[in-house]
Design brief:
about 230 residues; mainly alpha; about 0% strand; globular
């Protein structure tokens, strides 16, 4: 969720040493947010304080350096603040992590596309918009696919939503992007169809579909998309 938007932003423009600092800030921010959510749900909260201080300190330090060098990065707060409030709100004890919460996390990650492009010094609006939309399509599809075989497993309506979303991506890619992206979208649609089928067939057997298997599929899919973005610039 962090690597794909960051790398697509770089692929749409040009690499810069500042991207390393942005990557550190992104990882530290994610770890701080994840730890804060665990802290909210935990009973033994003091055990999380040192981790929160470390991750939060690294994020604050790298964030300040980036904002001082590139003040326009503050515009990211327009997305990060409300989306972050939804994520933290969903971490309260007894609160189910619903689809809105997952999409809010993806929205925060998507800020990395324009941020990386801005830091490159080679901003091209059309390319950045396309890269952001491609990243949004991929992350949104990933959230739907993963939920269809884990939290919403057995829910045929949710699976249909996931497959329909991916089918729409194929059409949009065919109209707006080069043919390799259409092929990639078709492959992602195939995985949206196949994973729920595999999950149903393996349910109750000695070899059920596990989260690690889904994760491996997503690692391969995201790697293909990133390589595609560098080979066929948006």
């Amino acid at each position: 969720m962090l690597a794909v938007p960051l790398l697509l932003g770089i692929a749409a423009t040009a690499p810069s040493p500042w991207h390393l600092l942005l990557a550190v800030a992104a990882v530290a921010g994610y770890l701080a947010a994840a730890t804060a959510q665990a802290w909210l749900r935990a009973r033994r909260r003091p055990s999380f304080i040192s981790s929160l201080a470390l991750y939060g300190g690294v994020f604050a330090a790298t964030g300040v350096l980036l904002v001082v060098a590139f003040p326009f990065l503050l515009l990211a707060a327009v997305v990060v603040v409300p989306a972050g409030a939804l994520v933290i709100g969903g971490a309260r004890p007894g609160t189910r992590r619903d689809l809105v919460n997952s999409l809010a996390q993806a929205a925060i990650a998507l800020v990395l596309v324009p941020a990386a492009a801005y830091l490159s010094g080679a901003w091209q609006t059309d390319a950045v918009v396309r890269a952001t939309l491609v990243a949004a399509g991929y992350l949104g599809g990933t959230i739907l696919v993963v939920r269809s075989v884990i939290r919403e497993r057995g829910n045929r309506g949710f699976t249909a939503l996931s497959v329909g979303f991916h089918a729409a991506l194929v059409v949009l890619a065919a109209v707006c992007l080069a043919w390799p992206y259409t092929a990639c979208a078709a492959g992602l649609t195939a995985r949206a169809i196949a994973l729920p089928l595999v999950e149903r067939r393996r349910a109750g057997t000695a070899r059920p579909l596990r989260p690690i298997h889904v994760g491996i599929v997503e690692i391969v899919a995201s790697t293909v998309l990133v390589l595609l973005a560098f080979a066929f610039p948006l």
